[in-house]
């Protein structure tokens, strides 16, 4: 090898792997200080390591005992609260009861999370009920009971009585809520998620109003004649019912007094409730999806019947985000926009059979206030670029929304770039009211309101960004 080749050659030394062991390791090893022997993980305090172990999946958390003598004691200490998820990832159905029982015996508690699917152990009901009495579950913060295949698992009364003082999250699927002699107090409950749960209106209303830090409620597949909610702390509520023999089983939802409520989310409006009444929610800023399947929508003194305005005697300046399942019915959309003068983001979903009344013209003498000052983003889903009604609908916003920053249009079916370009030319982008507006055509599958699992996540500024299936961010044609 000549000198030039040797000069260009890079020689790499194989690095020493990080080691986990139970004695303290020097931060710097070797005579020259350049041979670092780091054990950063074991330099962490036990409290931090315990938190890490508690956040791991159940099986992985238990396996940390094999790392060293220090970690053996860590998993079984109070510094690593138990995170027990009894599902197929923990073990198969035949051995799961024994595995869960052993974990509850070995771990002294307290517990952070207990997630249980009782269907795997229908013949061991006594053992399952006994788990809720285990000392390992002391101080439980999150309880999830899923039992969809077996209608309806009777949640033991002693479970709620025991855990109500410490629970922060309660998620029940396909369960029967126990009958309680006296209402329970949930002083730390922040999230309540119920799916097809057998519970009376009175019991649920009392539970919600009595949870003094409750922030989020999700009611899915529920059956109520009239549910009336009052909560001083509730920030978000999502809901839908299930039809029974074609009839809506959730008749009416009333928000009587919710001074902190920001989100009102009827996820599948065709499933109910048939009537939504908001009496007091002065901070409401996110609403949808709305459709004509909601027979009556009352927001203070504003009243819509099947999306047709009956009384528009006031406005809601707090509303920032609106999702409508109304198609290209411009009259309906404009009526809602006039109710919400400070609206910033609008979603409109179209379906076959939706009304397409879009002959309305913008009247500068009677302006839409949000068009003048606030509306920055419009998202159109299930857009059919071959229909003039759809094109006119999109152009109404392009030509009149003066502060629009972005319009996103979901095109049905896979199309070529040439097709996208041609149909993009039908949009009057050159005459757009906002010179900063960016119009994007995206290839989309058929979109419906879906994926409601994240709606309780208050860290999301806009819950609808992840609520529409079929979105493909990588496939797009952009019009500047």
UniProtKB/TrEMBL annotation:
<dbReference type="Pfam" id="PF08387">
    <property type="entry name" value="FBD"/>
</dbReference>
<dbReference type="InterPro" id="IPR055411">
    <property type="entry name" value="LRR_FXL15/At3g58940/PEG3-like"/>
</dbReference>
<feature type="domain" description="FBD">
    <location>
        <begin position="364"/>
        <end position="409"/>
    </location>
</feature>
<feature type="domain" description="F-box/LRR-repeat protein 15/At3g58940/PEG3-like LRR">
    <location>
        <begin position="128"/>
        <end position="348"/>
    </location>
</feature>
<dbReference type="InterPro" id="IPR006566">
    <property type="entry name" value="FBD"/>
</dbReference>
<dbReference type="InterPro" id="IPR053781">
    <property type="entry name" value="F-box_AtFBL13-like"/>
</dbReference>
<dbReference type="InterPro" id="IPR036047">
    <property type="entry name" value="F-box-like_dom_sf"/>
</dbReference>
<dbReference type="Pfam" id="PF24758">
    <property type="entry name" value="LRR_At5g56370"/>
</dbReference>
<dbReference type="InterPro" id="IPR032675">
    <property type="entry name" value="LRR_dom_sf"/>
</dbReference>
<dbReference type="InterPro" id="IPR055302">
    <property type="entry name" value="F-box_dom-containing"/>
</dbReference>
<protein>
    <recommendedName>
        <fullName>FBD domain-containing protein</fullName>
    </recommendedName>
</protein>
